[in-house]
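#struct-pred

JT: dropping the chains for the assembly here, can someone run the whole complex?
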Amino acid sequence: MNTWIMAAITFREAARKKILWTALLAGIGFLAVFGIALRIQIADFSAGTPPFVRYQILSGMLMVGLYTVDLLAVVMAILTSVDTIAGEISSGTIHAIAAKPMSRWQILVGKWLGFAGMLAVYVIVMFGGLVAVTFKMADMSPQHPVQGGLLIYLECLVALSICFLFGTWFSTLTNGVIVLGLHGLAFMGGWLEQMSGFTEGSRLATVGILASLVMPTEAVWRRAAFLMESPLAGSLPQFAIFTDVSIPSPEMIVYAASYILAVLGIAAYHFGQRDL
Amino acid sequence: MRNLNLQVRRGEIFGFLGPNGAGKSTSIRLLLGLARPTSGEGFVLGCPAEDVAVRRKIGFLPEDFRFYDWLTASELLHLHGRLCGVSSHDLHSRVPKLIDLVGLLPHRDRRLKGFSKGMLQRIGLAQALVHEPELIFLDEPTSGLDPMGRRLVRDILRAERERGATVFLNSHLLSEIEITCDQVVFIQEGEVVTTRDLRTKNEAELHVLIRARNLTSEAVDRLSSWSASAVAEGERLNLTVPSSDVLPDILRHLIGSGADVYECTPRPMTLEELFVSIMGKDTGL
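RK: done, full complex below.
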């Protein structure tokens, strides 16, 4: 019961502190800009533009839009949660809460659920909004949108869990530096894997995979991009923006889900053991 | 903490005293499971300190009284009440009464973000009482309060004692402790130094002021037979004696040494004087 009370209060905190609303407002601004860009591009097509080229350009714009949504969602996950455990420990706010009749893991999991709920709202609005705008203006939608959207959400949960893990150890600032650094590592790892495809260098691929194992956010995105991209992207690499040669396997998604559970387990254990 | 062994009687207001760094807040944190002992164990209300369920019977006001400042006063009490297992129905009637009790009724729907330090301490006290606990830990509950606020807290603590609750009070405001507590314990460097029962009239440790002329240093030195501390400054002689029974002997001794005694005023030691006599001079932290 107390876990759900903590989840509800955390969700309410996001709404009350205007984190969610500000982010959604900024997101709606992004959707508006994307819609305008799409309209301009459609207007710029001449009567002689081949349908194939027209389709690929719009498809590319959609993928860039989806990548932006993905990036915003992960940044949202990190920025909103980086202070929640670390900040409450350093300020002493946690004392009155942790002295209540509930285990520490209930506090941690409750807060995690609250943020997960907030991120679900954010991803639904942003991802759904982008898909709706593209469908309305260009009569186009991504392949496998439900799976793609869920994977973007999964990526957010990975980042969220990492924030919780290091928040039980370090200060807010250090936590933020670590999590953003890890996301940067994942980003680099993803591109190393891509580049290894061009050169067929297995050693480079191994480095990329290792980076993805340490922080699987980018790998999850690349799987999502593979699922959502136009089928032509796979057959014609020059049209694939995010997944030309190296596509994370479904096992990587299982790994990412297990990663979340493992990270949360370690975070709950350490939070339960440490002095407050 | 070392060999800390405390026994607090149910239904009393217990004062926990010691200099900065003595381990008072750490002790409370250990008893609430906020910190873990490197060795040893603690029991609260007969249950191990790490037992989560026993905290349903415990209220706690932390020293830094930081709470979710985006909540209103009323919402904060509802949150803490729910976490302690109080039903929404009970909270609906209990919360306004508690807010009124701590003098914040006009501010019940204001967010804590705009609260002063004293207001936060008042609402913090209310959150410690919202589930009608058997045992209440208060860490410096009056540090941010004005004299009226302190009196209010004093009255609330007495009312809680009447209800049957035990109050564990950690404070540096010794005058507050003196008029509120039933029993006090002094700790230093994590160990209990002494315990005092403040409910019984204690004849021990009288402070005596003697005004006399022709005091010789030899006569003052020989006062060590009756007093552990005797300090002469001109005509004034300050000393501490274990009881008033020794006063006639002291006066006979001084007069016999040739001193002319004009005044002898015994008075009980204040808690602050007792604190200083037990802890010694401040030698820095």
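JT: nice. Chain A touches chain B at residues 2, 5, 9, 13, 16-17, 91-93, 95-103, 273, 275-276 (CB under 8 Å). The first helix of chain A runs from residue 2 to 16.
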